[in-house]
Amino acid sequence: MSAVMITRKVRKWEKLPGKNTFCCDGRVMMARQKGVFYLTMFLIVGTCSLFFAFECPYLAVHLSPAIPVFAIILFLFVMAMLLRTSFSDPGVLPRALPEEANFIEMEIEAANGNVPAGQRPPPRIRNVQINNQIVKLKYCYTCKIFRPPRASHCSICDNCVDRFDHHCPWVGNCVGKRNYRYFYLFTLTLSLLTIYIFAFDIVHVVMRSVDKGFLNTLKETPGTVLEVLVCFFTLWSVVGLTGFHTYLISLNQTTNEDVSAAFENNACFNHFVLRDLK
């Protein structure tokens, strides 16, 4: 009786040479540096838990039962967008296979000719025409590919990402073409949630202070003080980040292009700005 050898098929994510970690049979993709992402989760879940424990019971009785319901909806949407941003493929471009890399090297050498010793070789670029305009594609020495327009190599994840925006440690992933809409919705809903909690923290303190005094109210609801501090110091950065990305969307730019001033002429990519969210 002959033994049948079953060869296990190797999935693409198992041999991806970048610095990412994968879970759930490759369905979850994250950067290896996840410490700040866990801090983000802790701040959101912790602050909302204090709000549900200290504010919601009082406000639901004395103001409206819709307050905790709307807070739960906002919280769940924020968490969904955070996890979708963190666990999604941001648009990683596959590296060239050894045969493809050798062929590209031969093409480049043939185009550049023999470079004299001691002389720097010309930059590796390829000109392509998009919407009747010449666009220069840059060569990535790590991935051995000519990157598409607006793509860039992330040094943290060690991957080329299509329409690379930035690497965000707060979500533990790169932000690119495939998860940018989730990132923007995360910052937008997180801004609304932070404002919502901060506003009703103040309302809660004011309403209870009428009957029991300000100091007694703070003693009875210590979680409220912590919520106010967290919301106050995070509100400006979160709302500012949302406003910044709203501005970038209106200009059809990415953070990487804005910071590096590399997006000098975007005429060949001009589309309706809401397509950046797709």
From TrEMBL:
Q: Name one GO cellular component term.
A: endoplasmic reticulum membrane
GO MF entry, a single one: protein-cysteine S-palmitoyltransferase activity
- In this chain the Palmitoyltransferase DHHC domain maps to 136-260
Q: What is its EC number?
A: 2.3.1.225
Give the domain of life. Answer: Eukaryota
Q: What is the annotated localization of this protein?
A: Endoplasmic reticulum membrane; Golgi apparatus membrane
Q: How does it sit in the membrane?
A: Multi-pass membrane protein
For this entry, list what GO says about its biological process.
protein targeting to membrane
The main place the protein resides is: endoplasmic reticulum
Q: Where are the transmembrane segments?
A: 36-54, 66-83, 182-206, 226-248
Catalysed reaction per UniProt? L-cysteinyl-[protein] + hexadecanoyl-CoA = S-hexadecanoyl-L-cysteinyl-[protein] + CoA
Per UniProt, which keywords does this protein have? Acyltransferase, Endoplasmic reticulum, Golgi apparatus, Lipoprotein, Membrane, Palmitate, Transferase, Transmembrane, Transmembrane helix
What UniProt notes about the protein's domains is: The DHHC domain is required for palmitoyltransferase activity.
Q: Under what name is this protein listed?
A: Palmitoyltransferase
Q: Which organism is it from?
A: Nothobranchius furzeri (Turquoise killifish)
Taxonomy of origin reads: Eukaryota, Metazoa, Chordata, Craniata, Vertebrata
Q: Which gene encodes it?
A: zdhhc9
